[in-house]
Design goal:
The chain has seven helices and 20 strands. The protein has 309 residues and is α+β, with helices and mostly antiparallel strands. It folds into two domains: 6-118, no CATH class; 123-181 and 216-308, Alpha-Beta Complex (Phosphoenolpyruvate Carboxykinase, domain 3), CATH 3.90.228. Helix 1 (24-33) packs across helix 2.
Amino acid sequence: MSPEVDCLGLTIMGRPVVVRSAEPALLASMAVAYADWRAEGPADGVPIRIALEVGEALAPGPVQIAVEGLRLRLTGGADGWADAEALNGACQVPRELAGQPRRLAGEVADTLVLFLLCRSGRAPLHAGAVMCGETALLLAGPSGSGKSTLSLAAMERGLRILSDDTVYIQMLPRLRIWGLPRPLHVFPADAPRFIAGAPPRETRLRAGKLKAVVPIAPWPGPPVAERAAVVLLERGERIGLEPVSPAAAASALSRLEPGFDLLAKESEAAIAAVTARGAWRLTLTRDPGAAMDALMHHFAEASAAASAI
């Protein structure tokens, strides 16, 4: 007799997602990994369907990702695929991942889910995002520009983190900026409060560099905003914040890094939407906390001025 297949229903970034598996531990881990998306809410479009199972012959190891048009393939430490035309996918994972929500999401599930979401109306934008009042500050810059350390400073100040590296832009029926909250990856020296004097923290190699893994503080409700301000990051000797034109901001954001260039047309439309009302350039020093204080002060004043009109 075949094992009984059960389902987990999610609403991720406003899209219905159904996860099927005959392995209870896999569904339980997915429920934990995507807890932000378990709440009932409006969803649009055809459901995205993903089937997961344990591959007893699979050994843990690096997962290799290959994309060809509308198809994605996972090999190595997983054996899976996703089809953006049919909006479905399937994957076998090593048994040890079945009971580890963070690893299951980070090594396999996020890849499948985001591949399908990004090809069904949620365009990726290479930027971190923190909430300042009702506005999502989109922190944009190449890898290593300071997005994660600035996000860590924001979290220490009680701000909500939508994402430390990528946001997803929904254009219709209205503009929405979605995040997928995952742990921050920062150099250990940049996160002393989270690692000094504490039990050994998780570390991970990112782009060949050892990073400390810092969980994002939980918040109720889905990670979404309907208003955004683009903040371009650069390094300098003094903290500074100055406005830049929508054209200059769009030009900076349009230098797509590998992975984002697979959806160049969709990214172009998303960039135009989030830069339409202008943007700012933030000069960062070695003190990300002071830079975040400057951002919070500026946007608090801007919000107060808008409310007074």
